Amino acid sequence: MEWTGARYADKPTVEVRTWIDAPPERVWQLVGDIALMPAMSEELQSVQWLDGADGPAVGARFVGHSRHEALGEWSTTSHVIECEPERVLAWAVQDPAEPSALWRFRLRPENGGTELSERMQLGPGRSGLSFAIDRMPDKEQKIVFVRLREFERSIASTLEHIKRQAEA
């Protein structure tokens, strides 16, 4: 049986949504505070704003330190590429022109609360996943599929944490 699925060069994405019984202002307080993110993630261990930044704004940068059982430990610098309070926060990992990943939170008022989505795109720039693919090019689509499923579970968990805190 031949594996069919996305290749890294396809810039595969995963997106998860949830509805939160809280206004966008309250949800934004949580989404915009990157210091909260490590407590919501198995992989992300710590984050710090760089260059004197203390919150999200286009052009602001932060460093994230991550750990994964199969991929080891690494640090990346992310660049905020989109920031509209109470609406959207997006960042490019490593090189904004050729990111190893793009992440985006989107908030939308809905039914007296907020629909919150989180989306991530792999590539097109190289990442730790690229090295795994280099070692096993015949398994590229499976490697990408497995990693996207990991991100999907992680994003769902992050959104659940944000939902619980916003509704508390």
From TrEMBL:
Highest taxon of source: Bacteria
One Pfam family hit: Polyketide_cyc2
InterPro entries, alphabetized: Polyketide_cyclase/dehydratase (IPR019587), START-like_dom_sf (IPR023393)
Stated name of the protein: Putative membrane protein
The species this protein was found in: Streptomyces echinatus
